[in-house]
Write a structure and sequence with these properties.
alpha/beta, Rossmann fold, 7 strands
Amino acid sequence: MLGGSFNPIHYGHLLLADDVLEQLGLDRVLFVPAAAPPHKPAAQLAPATARFAMVRLAIAGHPRFEVSDLELRRTGPSYTVDTLQALTAGGDALFLVIGSETFLDLLSWREPRRVAGLARLVVIPRTGSAFDPESAAAQKVLREIGVEGGFARAEAGRPLPPAGVVIVHAASLPLSASELRRRVRDGRSLAFRMPPAAIDYVRAHGLYRAEPA
């Protein structure tokens, strides 16, 4: 599961997802756009239905990418623990893909210990970041969420260690959704930053033209 606001989705998200899928040998990557992410101001977000539509357009044609509207069908804030609980009903082994900065902030989430119990955490260090799994901050999160096995590094072609938070050094691009929104407001190009179908959707629906409230 790769959750997020996807406001908007871009090639950085897609490249990361494809690399994680390959390195971990996953059956699929499920993109889950958040309807009402609790840590982000609603005024900065495009409508949830629009963000879902852009993800669906962006992943079309990839045989192992899927998108879920699970959080759009649920009222209230989009808590990951509730989404994972619903997904476990399908019987699949779940991996939750998050960035290293998000991992260090995990204790601010709703029921972080339960989140770690419902899905195996996959942490993606941001390119250029100083994420240190041996740091006091990272080790504190590990203790608080109750994960045994410490941190395990994924290596393509090798079986995953049976326990622990998985660290994947996935390919990344220097793209950010906030920069793409600024480019729209400034009338600048989105080419080679987002899939063409998603760009067309942004233009056709007039998304991100106004400054956030």
